[in-house]
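#struct-help
A.M.: can someone run this one for me? Single chain, 274 residues.
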Amino acid sequence: MDVVEMPKFYDDVELKLWKIYREFFDLAEKKRRWNIRDDVPWDQCNPNLDPAITDVVETFCCVELYLPDYVGKVLPVVRQSKGRTWFYCNWGYEESKHSLVLSDWLLRGKHRTEEYMVDLEKQVFEREWNMPVANHLGMLAYAMVQEHATFINYRNLRQRAKAMGGDPALETILGLITVDERAHYSLFKEFFDLYLAVDRDACLVALRAVLNQFQMPAVHDLLGESKRRIAGIRSLELFNEEIFFRDVYNYLLDALSVTRAEMRGPKQKKSLAG
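D.P.: on it. Structure tokens below:
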């Protein structure tokens, strides 16, 4: 993939991006880092938890396993931005922990076997995730929306798990992950805010494309059992159209101070023939 060149007027933005990343990193090192072995009450796994919950955890685990594609494909797009490149490396580390801890819970809670997980990983790695857009603004908009939507999914799953029998280990894990996802979203939003101030029209074009076509990876393109997984997610009402418009679409427009009129795009002039 060719490296995408950033316009010259983004030079000042890059300095601000790096400052935001360093503050993010320093705060994470001080307050947010957690340890898979030491910070989860593994002796409190519930092997009798509702199977719908474990199916969704497995699905989320699969989504996290596409990490090599996520990082490997976006880095060339943001290669000229140190702030964004360093953040994606940090992001990859944190997302790898999510994959590991979800897999460990499935095994320690006796919901899946080692053999099953090995086969599952092989099936995931046989497929490939492709970027929904190929330009740096589009991927920034996508990442911002994706991280907030992922936060909503994990937050809601934690609530459902607690209400459907409870599992202190899983609830702890999901609590740690939601904090990470919220932090990721917040940084992507700060980045996007900077670009909005530089080139609002270009950012709005990118945001429109992402929000108008958005889908969670968990509800498509996941192995042969995807229909069952989708049904499980829908039955738990973790993420649906109503939640998307209320908690993602409308939430982001308010957070970014983007109007509904801007999301509809510029008015098209009528042609004489029209």
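A.M.: thanks! The radius of gyration is 20 Å.
D.P.: also worth noting: The mean pLDDT is 88.
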